[in-house]
Amino acid sequence: MSDKAKQRYLLQGNEAIVQGALAAGCRFFAGYPITPASEIAEQLSITLPAVDGTFIQMEDEIASMGAIIGASLSGVKAMTATSGPGFSLMQENLGFACVAEVPCVVVNVMRGGPSTGLPTCPAQGDVQMARWGTHGDHPIVVLSVSTVMDSFTITVKAFNIAEKYRVPVILLSDEVVAHTRECVELPDAEEIKVVDRITPSVPPEWYKPYEGDARGVPPMAAFGDGYRHHVTGLIHDEMGYPTQRPSEVKAFHERLTKKITRGFPDIQMTRGYYLDDAEVFVVAYGAVARSALRAVEDARENGVKAGLLQLITLFPFPRRALTPLLDQCRAVLVPEMNLGQISREVQRVNNGECVVAKHNRIDGKFITPRELFDRLMKL
Amino acid sequence: MTSEQKNQERYEIRFSGSGGQGLITAAVVFAEAVGVYDGKHVCQTQSYGPEARGGKSKAEVVVSRSPIDYPKALELDLLLAMNQAACDAYFYDLKPNGILVIDSGLVEQQPTSRIIAIPFTQIAKEEIGRELVANMVALGAIGLLSGQVDLENLEKALLARVPKGTEEMNSKALKRGIEEAGKIKLDDLPRSVMSEDDEV
């Protein structure tokens, strides 16, 4: 075997998320088992202790979210993983992570909902919840994966975004991607770009824990390394203490939003297929993007100039990738395993030039290439 | 590459029966042999109900020489049915020239005469001594009949996945399956799973 030949592994999407998290430097996991996300906790319970990391099975998802916030504040990259019902429980503490700017990654492997719903069936019903599940205006990043390899690379990216912008990142997978096994060749450690949070460069007595740098992101001191500071869910001033002064409250909110807005080119990720001469196109994400790619190729063979825009970043919604295509094409098809959660975003950024068609499946089944092909041929 | 060529490159297998028969394990071993050891593109998926045992269970393997977009089966080249319900439910997903493999002790009503009937469970119980390894007897048969996997690699993948101490039993089960399938002459079977009346 030559030096370049890499070991091939047969991995599930969930197992690839574990490998991605470890490669990104995650050393803390707290969670509670739930189908179809349990394999993530199961594998990390073995792999984390082996790299001097910490794995805790908590009493529930509320505590799990609290635990990863605590771990991250003490300087450790932290993650939890769950599915819909657990994700609901995490929302309160997720808001705390947003307002206190605590980097962390929350994996939600979507299954049929609401409530306990359809535990073993695929769905994409948590998309808007991932954006707006916790209350109040808040910045958050939502990414989605469609293959086993994605589950590795996008998990690394999720940690990098969380660390770089001090923001919680939601990684949406679904039952299909999570449980599909594919062969992957994982990159070596030196090939993977890993971003770590910026730590204060000033002595402790000068440290202002919530003073943004040029990008609006405050350097982050870890609890226990001498930088005594206050962390609260209340709106706070640059020293981290609660404030109600309108000028400080406004400045706080603006900084929180702008630090993400400034990062749009870095955060908003999409993949295009056959778009250059497309007359109709599909906007898809997660496992459905795979069905869509096949449908687009089939449509092209049947004389329809179709293309696919696959969304990796769902929020902040990648408007800039979409608007030129909405101008270029006469129709766009948005297939989802929900009643239309991204299609409303597409409609929002549409200038009225393009027909927006939805294709929704909510019967617990995966969307097939055939049904999308039939829609494309009639657009 | 055209879609038709792509479909011709795909080889799709479904392992079906009830929960607890080890169908997902069999599919994973097959996928590992084809993907990791043979170096082909492979996607392995499954669906099952919320029950731990019983209920419907199916696992699929899609093999291709090019990258696989849609990860689940579209039209089956080979269907393994380990009970009557699975045979009835999935028979119609077979290609006309696909292969239907059944456990002849568990499937009484046969939907076609293009069928390969082997008593996997009975062989496992009486010859290997454990009903548990019926899935591995079936895996051996499918390994040979599909023509998609190097049989030595299939055994390697199997031995890497099974619990320590059970290697010999599993490997024996696999070889019995291969041997049993070797007695079948595919060319002697009717060419289509559909009866002649249906085809007209």
What does this protein look like?
The complex is a heterodimer of chains A (379) and B (200). Chain A is α/β, with parallel strands linked by helices and 379 residues long. Chain A has two domains: 8-191, 3-Layer(aba) Sandwich (Rossmann fold), CATH 3.40.50.970; 271-378, Rossmann fold, CATH 3.40.50. Chain A is 38% helix and 21% strand. Chain A has 13 helices and 15 strands. Chain A has helices at 13-24, 38-50, 61-73, 84-99, 127-132, 148-165, 175-179, 246-261, 264-267, 288-301, 319-328, 343-349, 369-378, and strands at residues 8-12, 28-31, 54-57, 78-82, 104-112, 118-122, 141-144, 168-174, 181-185, 270-273, 280-284, 306-311, 313-315, 331-336, 355-360. In chain A, a hairpin with a 5-residue loop joins strand 5 and strand 6 (118-122). Chain A is globular, with a radius of gyration of 21 Å. The model of chain A has no long low-confidence stretch (mean pLDDT 96). By secondary structure, chain B is an alpha/beta fold. Chain B has one domain: Pyruvate-ferredoxin Oxidoreductase, domain 3 (3-Layer(aba) Sandwich), CATH 3.40.920. Chain B has helices at 3-9, 23-37, 84-90, 120-128, 134-146, 151-161, 167-182, 196-199, and strands at 11-18, 41-48, 56-64, 76-81, 94-103, 115-118. In chain B, a hairpin with a 7-residue loop joins strand 2 and strand 3. Chain B is globular, with a radius of gyration of 16 Å. The A-B interface holds A 8-10, 35, 119-121, 176, 179-183, 287, 290-291, 293-294, 297-298, 301, 366, 368-370 and B 2-3, 6, 28, 31-32, 35-36, 39, 41-50, 68-72, 74. Strand 9 of chain A pairs antiparallel with strand 2 (41-48) of chain B.
Briefly, what is this?
The complex is a heterodimer of chains A (379) and B (200). Chain A is α/β, with parallel strands linked by helices and 379 residues long.
List the helices and strands and how they pair.
The complex is a heterodimer of chains A (379) and B (200).
Chain A: E1 8-12, H1 13-24, E2 28-31, H2 38-50, E3 54-57, H3 61-73, E4 78-82, H4 84-99, E5 104-112, E6 118-122, H5 127-132, E7 141-144, H6 148-165, E8 168-174, H7 175-179, E9 181-185, H8 246-261, H9 264-267, E10 270-273, E11 280-284, H10 288-301, E12 306-311, E13 313-315, H11 319-328, E14 331-336, H12 343-349, E15 355-360, H13 369-378
Parallel strand pairs in A: 2-3, 2-4, 4-5, 5-8, 7-8, 11-12, 11-14, 14-15
Antiparallel strand pairs in A: 1-9, 5-6, 7-13, 10-12
Helix pairs in contact in A: 1-2, 1-6, 3-4, 10-13
Chain B: H1 3-9, E1 11-18, H2 23-37, E2 41-48, E3 56-64, E4 76-81, H3 84-90, E5 94-103, E6 115-118, H4 120-128, H5 134-146, H6 151-161, H7 167-182, H8 196-199
Parallel strand pairs in B: 1-4, 4-5, 5-6
Antiparallel strand pairs in B: 1-3, 2-3
Helix pairs in contact in B: 2-5, 2-6, 4-5, 4-7, 5-7
